[in-house]
């Protein structure tokens, strides 16, 4: 059974950092691109960052470029999101998501985890 379990969320001050982790199981992790998406009240689910199945390419929404870094460890079936210089607008429920392709032109999701809450507050 496919499972995606996120961890690492919490409360951080503006300018602070958090590192999210996602443990995957139930599918061949190294065959699929992965993404992080966040649920923000009033905005729905928005894509944040994506990484190809082999980790060769990474992509980010404009608002997080230069601050967030997505990475993966295919040996451990893990995907990570390092978030630096956090801003109030980064507050949301962050989901680890699985694509149905290895190297998508546009990242999409066919599965996602329950999410981990990130709150940026002073």
Could you walk me through the main structural features you see in this protein, from its secondary elements to its overall organization?
Helix content is 0%, strand content 49%. It contains no helices and 11 strands. The chain has strands at residues 3-7, 10-12, 18-25, 34-40, 44-51, 58-60, 68-73, 78-83, 92-98, 111-112, 116-120. The strands form 2 sheets. Strands 2, 4, 5, 6, 9, 10 and 11 form a 7-stranded mixed sheet that branches. With 122 residues, the protein is an all-beta fold. The N and C termini lie far apart (40 Å).
Topology:
Elements: E1 3-7, E2 10-12, E3 18-25, E4 34-40, E5 44-51, E6 58-60, E7 68-73, E8 78-83, E9 92-98, E10 111-112, E11 116-120
Parallel strand pairs: 2-11
Antiparallel strand pairs: 1-3, 3-8, 4-5, 4-9, 5-6, 7-8, 9-10, 9-11
The count of strands amounts to 11
Choose one word for the global shape: globular
H-E string: EEEEEEEEEEE
Helix segment count?
A: 0
| Biggest sheet overview | 7 strands, mixed
Q: Which whole number gives the mean pLDDT?
A: 96
What percentage of the residues does DSSP assign to strands (E)?
Answer: over 45%
Low-confidence stretches: none
Helix content: under 10%
Structural class: mainly beta
Gyration radius over CA: 13 Å
Distance between the termini: 40 Å
């Amino acid at each position: 059974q496919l499972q995606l379990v996120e961890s690492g969320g919490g409360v951080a001050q503006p300018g602070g950092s958090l590192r999210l982790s996602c443990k995957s199981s139930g599918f061949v992790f190294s065959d699929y691109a992965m993404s992080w998406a966040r649920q923000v009240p009033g905005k729905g689910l928005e894509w944040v960052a994506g990484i190809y199945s082999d980790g060769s390419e990474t992509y980010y929404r404009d608002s997080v470029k230069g601050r967030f870094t997505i990475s993966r460890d295919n040996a451990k079936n893990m995907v990570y999101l390092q978030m630096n210089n956090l801003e109030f607008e980064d507050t949301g429920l962050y989901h680890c998501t699985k694509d149905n392709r290895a190297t998508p032109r546009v990242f999409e999701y066919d599965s996602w985890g329950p999410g981990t809450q990130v709150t940026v507050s002073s």
